[in-house]
Design brief:
mainly alpha, Lysozyme, 7 helices, about 0% strand
Length: about 150
């Protein structure tokens, strides 16, 4: 058992390609254009969520990738033709993150509430008041990051 683990680690280290943010930064622009979302806003979310790490995984929630797509969305994403494993690809993850944000924008308008709802990871409710403080905290993180990215 231990030997199998060691061999797996060796193979991973030998063949795993590093994923650099520069490899998929253009995807923020493309996803922004597709979903009519400011690409700098998408970049700010990617920075807050994973520091642009395509292989980031939240060990507690199992959210994954650049935009930290929460497992709550996996079934819907799979219905639309993308497997959860494909979310490890930086561009794929960014496009789905933009799609999710677009869903929240449809719900709440182009607002910080929509950004806050994105940060809730799919645990949105019809009663915004229940999550208002959580939305505000997340939206402030993104807004602060957005300010530094513009300067």
């Amino acid at each position: 058992m231990r030997m199998r683990w060691i061999m797996s680690l060796i193979l991973y280290l030998l063949f795993a390609q590093p994923v650099y943010a520069s490899d998929f930064m253009r995807c923020f622009d493309q996803a922004g254009a597709r979903y009519n979302i400011n690409p700098t806003l998408l970049k700010a979310i990617g920075k807050v969520e994973s520091n642009f790490n395509a292989r980031a995984e939240n060990l507690k929630t199992k959210a994954r990738g650049v935009m930290q797509i929460h497992p709550w969305w996996f079934a819907k994403i799979e219905e639309m033709g993308t497997s959860p494993e494909q979310l490890w690809d930086g561009c794929t993850n960014i496009f789905w993150g933009a799609w999710i944000l677009a869903q929240e924008i449809q719900r709440y308008g182009y607002s910080w509430t929509a950004v806050g709802a994105y940060g809730a990871g799919g645990y949105t409710t019809d009663n915004v008041e229940e999550r208002k403080e959580q939305y505000k905290i997340y939206a402030k993180k993104v807004a602060d990051k957005l300010k530094t990215m513009k300067n």
